Amino acid sequence: MARARLRPKLPPPRIWGQLWFQVLAGTVLGVALGWYRPAIGVEMKPLGDAFVALVRMMIAPIVFCTVVHGVASMNDMRRAGRTALKALIYFEAITTLALIVGLAAVNLWGPGRGMAIDPASLDTHAVGQYVAQAGRQSVVEYLMAVIPDTFVGAFTGGTVLQVLLVAVLSALALIRLEPAGKPLLDGIGAAAELFFKIIGILMWLAPVGAFGAIAFTVGKFGAASLASLGSLIAEFYAVCALFTAVVLGGIAWAFGINLLKLMGYLKDEIVLVAATTSTETVLPRLIQKLKGLGCDESVVGLVVPLGYSFNLDGTCLYLATTSVFLAQATGVHLTPAQQISLLVVMLLTSKGAAGVAGAAFIVLAATLASTGAAPVGTIALVLGVHRILAEALTFVNLIGNSLATLVVARWEGALDRNALAAKLSPKPLTLVAVKEVA
User: Nearest Cα to 98, choosing from 246, 257, 266?
Assistant: First the structure.
């Protein structure tokens, strides 16, 4: 005779078995090594670089498969276009607001006032590579760069927008092939699962990557940079916290999302981003986690890759803050009209920054070259604290893109509110019925 008994649901893994704790432990060890043995810490850089490279090699196929499967499954070209348009409108509004907040804060705080730095006294040799990559690029040139040389070239160029372009075209073609394209669509869905499994394997190396990246940062730049530019660091971290709490928090509240619980849900990704100063290291996991929150696959597939190029709130805060800081530090007075012009230019240049910390530094050089707000070579002044600032900017980029996806999904009626509430609410101990056979 069969009977049922109740047993508790299995508890979550112990704290030391969770990714965020392992990455945090690697980060702490990296800080200790970089602090007490700077020379050895600097030599750990390949560990961080290797981990970032391993994850980046998976981004193109994951974005392609996710976008193709999501958009083609939607089976509605107009809905796909509407979703992308809503996302771009949201991105433009929030990044503009980020630039305004960044400009207002740096003018009020004035971290560079009184420094009286002579640009000629700066050693610009270390920033030569960034200046060389900061050539002026027109809007037409930027748009043309989105088109890859070949279809396969999109996967080797390292640009998410190129992958997104070929993915959307492929998805639209599959919609028109229905029902003949169904087997191919199923195969792409299976390939996506394969790539996500590979990412799961690579995450075992995340603590090692975090250890190497943070050991290099502390060993290379140390406490001297923090002391000399402490006011800039304090101002930037304060404005990032303010923007996250007030602007992103207000948007989350308006759409019925608890921002603190969302950050708790993304704790693994937050810790990893802080250690590596690269949001690209968590892009594949972010896609999975947002789908787990109840966002429709088609929305996640479009909004997340778009956001990695067009919704860089933290990068906008960084560009506004550092551009005016360098002007203040070198005694360049920027009139309100010049700062408005600077804002317009940054709206364009910020769209060329990817989720990697170094890209923001290149875009900073491009912004200065385009506006003349300060001599381009003055970026050498913030080179030593760039990675410290990047920890804050990449955090804001991560939270901003996560929230944007949820907002657009709800805007489109493609958000499962029950799944969202279940994931962002504490889970009580539940009993599971188990059948026994006598």
Answer: 246
Mean pLDDT, the chain, whole residue set: 82
- Backbone φ and ψ of 435, nearest 5°: -85, 135
Q: Could you tell me how many residues make up the chain?
A: 438
The pLDDT value recorded for residue 131 is 54
DSSP 115: -
Type of residue numbered 425: S
C-beta separation of 315 from 356 below 8 A: no
Concatenating the DSSP letter of every residue in 398-430 gives: HHHHHHHHHHHHHHTT-B-HHHHHHHHS-----
Q: Where are the domains of the chain?
A: 28-422
Query: What residues contact 278, with CB distance under 8 A and at least 6 apart?
Result: 52, 355, 356, 357, 394
CATH fold, domain 28-422, is Proton glutamate symport protein (1.10.3860)
227-238: pLDDT as tens digits = 667 889 999 999
Nearest alpha-carbon partner for 293 in 256, 252, 265: 265
Checking if the pLDDT of 86 tops 60, the result is yes
- Residue 113, phi then psi, degrees to nearest 5: -65, 135
Query: Which tokens go with 154?
Result: 């999109």
Question: Is pLDDT at 438 greater than 90 in this prediction?
Answer: no
Nearest residue to 363 via CA among 303, 403, 317: 317
| Bridge partner list, 4 | 435
Q: What are the angstrom distances between the C-alpha of 181 and each of 15, 46, 189, 399?
A: 45, 43, 12, 36
Give the chain's largest Cα–Cα span: 90
Encoded amino acid at 14, one letter = R
- Residue indicated by tokens 């028109």: 176
The tokens describing 17, both together, are: 């078995």
Structure tokens at 242: 């303010």
Using alpha carbons, select from 209, 241, 223 the residue that is nearest to residue 102. 241
Query: Rg of the chain over CA atoms, in angstroms?
Result: 23
Lowest mean pLDDT segment, chosen from 10-24, 41-55, 68-82? 10-24
Grouping H, G, I as helix, E, B as strand and the rest as coil, residue 330 is: coil
